[in-house]
Amino acid sequence: MGGGVRKRMRLFVLIRAEDVSGVSGTGVVAEGVEFTDGTVAMRWLRRPYSVACYASIRDVVAVHGHGGKTRVKWLSEDGYRRDERWSEASGGSIVWSEPKR
């Protein structure tokens, strides 16, 4: 974030290509919000439907990325998914890009 605070929250979904744990399934498995200070709240879409908070989206990726098997997809402000909001980097890590304003 470059040390600044964004003016708006950002919505995202977590998309899992492979279910490493055998619990969450594949496809869109969670939805979340990144608050203006970078804090993230995320809700799982399958039982037990838990909610968790993280210090940053990087922490979400570190815990749930599973070496590139799960990715963060940013949603546009109107709620529609936009493919250009995420990309898979070499080596299986997950990177994200700031929306162009």
Protein architecture, described:
There is one protein chain. This protein is 8% helix and 35% strand. It is mainly β and 101 residues long. It has one domain (10-96). The two termini are 14 Å apart.
Number of separate domains: 1
Radius of gyration: 13 Å
The 3D shape can be described as globular
- Report the sheet-strand fraction: 25-35%
Number of E-type strands: 7
Helix/strand class:
mainly beta
Order of helices and strands: EEEEHEEE
Strand order of the largest sheet: 4-3-2-1-5
What portion of residues is helical? under 10%
Overall mean pLDDT stands at 77
Largest sheet: 5 strands, antiparallel
List unreliable stretches of 5+ residues.
82-101
What's the helix count? Answer: 1
Distance between the termini: 14 Å
Would you spell out the secondary-structure blueprint of this structure?
Blueprint: E1 10-16, E2 27-34, E3 40-44, E4 51-54, H1 57-64, E5 70-74, E6 86-88, E7 94-96
Summarize the structure.
With 101 residues, this protein is mainly beta. 8% of the residues lie in helices and 35% in strands.
Q: Which terms would index this structure?
A:
101 residues, mainly beta, 5-stranded antiparallel sheet, 35% strand
